[in-house]
């Protein structure tokens, strides 16, 4: 590990599984130190270990990202330890689907707090040092559902659309300080989140994707990796759909 040049420090939420895990592994391959955040110690711990086994540098933090106080305390401790986080990927997310008449307030709050408020909390505490250094990358993983809406997902669609509004506003606030803020909006990606869909639902979904297949977590990681790199220097406030052509 010591012979690897640690280039930047990247924090990825929801890094324990699926898309977040693929993003963490991909950024680690670039030589960045990865702070893997997820709800359970076992999932983020396993990903941090895998990165280390592959010769990279990583640490794991188990945290409920919907808990603003816990996020603040964690960010303060991380800034104390590292000075600054250069790359922030807000990826942790959940669904609690139901038609609106049957949707409980807890399901609304849980989805809004986990998907959207968490972005505000992390950015609020980690962006200031980025602006001081005049370099930073914030990438928010939303969803095409935030662009199109979806019956049964009013909470999720609102959270993901909110992430887009947050991104565009903060892109404007931070642009002059060379801190970029962008959204990656995945279509349907093969992860635990979509494996809970029935076979019929999966068939129906593949039917409406022009490329006739679900995406892979690595498809989202590739776009995120690009947005985290120097190659995306002049791109901010944008939404990149990665969805096999579903939303055009
Ligand atoms: P998964 O369900 O496979 O993984 C979710 C990750 O988020 C897990 O690591 C989980 O932690 C973490 N997480 C969930 N809630 C919290 C919380 N309160 N605090 C901390 N960590 C939490 O999801 P995906 O990989 O499929 O999705 C990742 C992101 O991509 C989400 O924001 C999702 O909305 C978005 N997305 C996914 C699509 C898809 O088709 N899969 C499509 C469009 C968008 P733990 O491992 O500890 O449980």
Written account of the structure:
The chain is an alpha/beta fold. The chain has one domain (about 10-240): NAD(P)-binding Rossmann-like Domain (Rossmann fold), CATH 3.40.50.720. The chain contains 9 helices and 7 strands; from the N terminus they run E-H-E-H-E-H-E-H-E-H-H-E-H-H-H-E. It has helices spanning about 20-30, 40-55, 70-80, 105-135, 145-150, 155-175, 190-195, 200-210, 215-230; strands spanning about 10-15, 35-40, 55-60, 85-90, 135-140, 180-185, 240. The model has no long low-confidence stretch (mean pLDDT about 95). NADPH dihydro-nicotinamide-adenine-dinucleotide phosphate binds near residues 17, 38 and 63.
Secondary structure topology:
Blueprint: E1 9-13, H1 18-29, E2 33-38, H2 41-53, E3 57-62, H3 68-82, E4 87-90, H4 105-133, E5 136-141, H5 145-148, H6 154-174, E6 179-186, H7 192-195, H8 199-208, H9 217-228, E7 239-242
Parallel strand pairs: 1-2, 1-4, 2-3, 4-5, 5-6, 6-7
The structure holds NADPH dihydro-nicotinamide-adenine-dinucleotide phosphate.
């Amino acid at each position: 590990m010591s012979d690897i040049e640690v280039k930047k420090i990247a924090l990825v939420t929801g890094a324990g599984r699926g898309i977040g895990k693929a993003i963490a592994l991909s950024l680690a391959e670039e030589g960045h130190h990865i702070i893997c955040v997820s709800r359970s110690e076992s999932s983020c711990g396993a990903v941090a270990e895998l990165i280390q086994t592959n010769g990279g540098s990583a640490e794991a933090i188990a945290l409920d990202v919907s808990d603003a106080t816990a996020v603040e305390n964690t960010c303060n401790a991380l800034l104390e330890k590292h000075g600054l986080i250069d790359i922030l990927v807000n990826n942790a997310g959940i669904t609690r689907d139901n038609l609106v008449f049957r949707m409980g307030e807890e399901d609304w709050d849980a989805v809004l707090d986990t998907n959207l408020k968490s972005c505000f909390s992390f950015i609020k505490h980690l962006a200031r040092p980025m602006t001081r250094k005049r370099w930073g990358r914030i990438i928010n993983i939303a969803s095409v559902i935030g662009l199109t809406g979806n019956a049964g997902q009013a909470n999720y669609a609102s959270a993901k659309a909110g992430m887009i509004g947050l991104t565009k506003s903060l892109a404007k606030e931070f642009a002059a300080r060379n801190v970029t803020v962008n959204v990656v909006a995945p279509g349907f990606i093969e992860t635990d989140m979509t494996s809970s869909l029935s076979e019929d639902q999966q068939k129906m979904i593949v039917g409406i994707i022009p490329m006739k297949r679900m995406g892979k977590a690595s498809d989202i990681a590739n776009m995120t990796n690009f947005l985290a790199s120097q190659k995306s220097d002049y791109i901010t406030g944008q939404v990149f759909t990665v969805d096999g052509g579903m939303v055009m």
